[in-house]
Amino acid sequence: MKTVAEALALVLQQARVLPPSEIAATNVLGLMLAEDVASDVDSPPHDKSVVDGFAVRTEDFSSGRARLEVVELIPAGRVPSKTITAGQTTQIMTGAPLPSGADAIVMVERTNLARGKLAQVGDVIELEEPKLKAGQNIMRRGISMRQGEVILKTGSRLRPIELGLLAEVGRAHVKVHRRPVVGILATGDELVRPEVKPTAGQIRNSNGPLLAGMVHDVGGVPIDLGIAVDTAGSLRERISAGLTDCDVLLLSGGVSAGVLDLVPQVLAELGVEEIFHQVSLKPGKPLWFGTFDRSDRHCLVFGLPGNPVSSFVCFALFVRPVIDRMLGRHPARTCIARLTKAHSVRGDRATYWPARLIESNVIVEKFIEPLNWHGSGDLRTLAAANALAIFPNGGDHQAGEEVEVLKL
Ligand code: AMP
Ligand code: MG
């Protein structure tokens, strides 16, 4: 049986960064840029006022105050037409271009004009600014970026800030590593959809929505392939559909040692090559992994165990890193924390125990509290977890002991 580290290495060997493709900027949040982006404009595009006030000549302020005649009003979006000469000013709004002749802006608060009032052309305004300096309250053209300058580099992660920048430089489409398409198929005769009240022997399909949510969370595109029953025919039909369209195919259930656990056999018949089956892991031992190759497609196929927490843990350990890699990302997902209480783990498999990671803004140290979890079918307790505490071997662990933690 493979260890977690061996299994992860085998999985990652098969995961390739997806080729760059041009995508609408409205759909690239969280993705990695696959080109250098240069600005098509100077920003700001003109010398602009950063306050509401009056454009003036500092020469007129040798005494620290001036009485100036208003020659023009310039709201944002308008271009000034008048040059300011001695004794003149224009009223200017935040963002508007500086008129020629002016070399500073005096804030409206430093004048005798009532707040919120517009001056009229011909008005004489009294302004007081004892320490007025040339350039005051002016943002110079191109100070933020120059036309042609590279402002985002290949490999940048596109956060909301970067989306704002892309818009500023006119990019409605951008080259990124596209999102992997991830098919999700639940298997099991006992499964019904969430809206159905289960009858005797039935349970609802939790894994479908759980896995779709996780795929979405890490930046993949989940495709719901529904529920297959435990017959070779049903499995064959639905798995084939997934293999043709997906970069990753997630099956849940049907990979344990039961008579009706037909998934590995059907995958082999369909030409999916097995890379490993079973990992020394708790929960998640039955995990199956293989690949399917067609001329244009390399599909990674995971047979996840049916129990929801097992499926979840296998996703967090093996599928999430695959999606990260396909997107060109390498996020750090583990940290070290101290156990808040003693904890015992039975068996000798590496155990990933649902837990609450306690982080604070004032204490550098992190703490981890294992939850009172009832095993791989206990999804309810997992809902209180924000991390998995990693116990590489079974045995007893003391309060205060440091353990590695996988953040969820
Ligand atoms: P299996 O791996 O098919 O033997 O399933 C193991 C356990 O997980 C059984 O108790 C199944 O009923 C349960 N199970 C399988 N698939 C799902 C699913 N999609 N949602 C919730 N529970 C499931
Ligand atoms: Mg089953």
Structure description:
- This protein has 408 residues and is of the alpha/beta class.
- Helix content is 19%, strand content 32%.
- It contains seven helices and 27 strands.
- The strands form eight sheets. It has a six-stranded mixed β-sheet with strand order 15-12-16-20-19-17, with helices on both faces. A five-stranded mixed β-sheet has the order 7-4-6-5-8, with no helix packed on it.
- Helix 1 (4-14) packs across helix 6 (308-326) and helix 4 (232-245) crosses helix 5.
- The chain is elongated.
- The protein starts with a helix and ends with a strand.
- The structure holds adenosine monophosphate and magnesium ion.
- Magnesium ion is lined by residues 188, 253-254, 306.
- Adenosine monophosphate (AMP) binds at residues 186, 188, 190-191, 203, 205-207, 252-256, 258, 261, 305-308.
Taking the sheet with the most strands, its summary is:
6 strands, mixed
Low-confidence stretches are none
Order of adjacent strands in the largest pleated sheet:
15-12-16-20-19-17
Number of helices: 7
Distance between the termini: 26 Å
Helix/strand-derived class? alpha/beta
Average predicted local confidence, pLDDT: 96
- Proportion of β residues? 25-35%
Radius of gyration: 31 Å
Q: What ligand species are in this complex?
A: adenosine monophosphate, magnesium ion
Helix content: 10-25%
Number of E-type strands: 27
CA-based shape: elongated
